[in-house]
Design a protein that fits this description.
By secondary structure, the chain is α/β, with parallel strands linked by helices. It is built from eight helices and eight strands; from the N terminus they run H-E-H-E-H-E-H-H-E-E-E-H-E-H-E-H. The protein has a single domain, classed as Thiamin diphosphate (ThDP)-binding fold, Pyr/PP domains (Rossmann fold), CATH 3.40.50. It has a six-stranded parallel sheet, with helices on both faces. A two-stranded antiparallel sheet has the order 5-6. Bound molecules: magnesium ion (MG).
Length: about 190
């Protein structure tokens, strides 16, 4: 079992100009590590739509690698996105499903299928070939470089322990966060 904070710290240490899209229980821990020009927390009314927002960005921004940190509860709300990712594959797209088996920020209620669902099987069934389930730190370290260097679309399933993340609350409202990302993408697009 992984610790999500340990994983996020490793990701933040390696990350440079990749766009990181976060959602729900990952948004605040990631903001604590990184809140820069290429970070965007797709929260407020965005539950379930980080993976598809990121897919659109990956299509529109081929010179940027897009890494999405999506919870399992959020992923369950947009399973069809996996089919879309396979249908319109882009090599700069990375989706990380952070599986703790619960809706963490509302009190760790079990998600449907907790303990039974297999996200790797679902992603492969959707037509995505590069899918890796990561169970522990040694798996994580062995596959870590692929997040930054592998040819997408890539899907990772991080098996993480439950934590106690509160409801995310941001200094900048959603529209300002969206404006910041758009502005920085426009400045860095050639
Ligand atoms: Mg969860």
């Amino acid at each position: 079992m992984l610790n999500k904070y340990t994983c996020l710290k490793k990701l933040a240490a390696r990350r440079s100009d990749e766009i990181i899209i976060t959602n729900m229980g990952i948004a605040k821990p990631w903001e604590n590590l990184s809140d820069g020009p290429f970070d965007f927390a797709s929260v407020d009314s965005g539950m379930g739509h980080a993976a598809d927002l990121a897919h659109g960005l990956a299509i529109a921004q081929p010179h940027h690698r897009i890494i999405t940190l999506n919870g399992d509860g959020s992923m369950l709300m947009c399973l069809g996105t996996l089919v879309t990712i396979a249908q319109r594959p882009v090599n700069n797209y990375v989706l990380i499903i952070i599986e703790n088996g619960t809706y963490e920020i509302t009190g760790n209620q079990f998600v449907p299928g907790a303990g039974k669902i297999n996200y790797e099987t679902i992603a492969r069934g959707a037509g995505i070939d590069e899918v890796y389930t990561i169970y522990d730190d040694s798996d994580f370290d062995a596959k870590f470089a692929l997040i930054f260097e592998g040819e997408g679309p890539l899907v990772f399933v991080w098996k993480v322990a439950q934590a106690n993340e509160p409801v995310p609350n941001f200094q900048l409202p959603l529209w300002e966060r969206a404006h910041r990302l758009r502005k920085n993408l426009n400045e860095n697009t050639n």
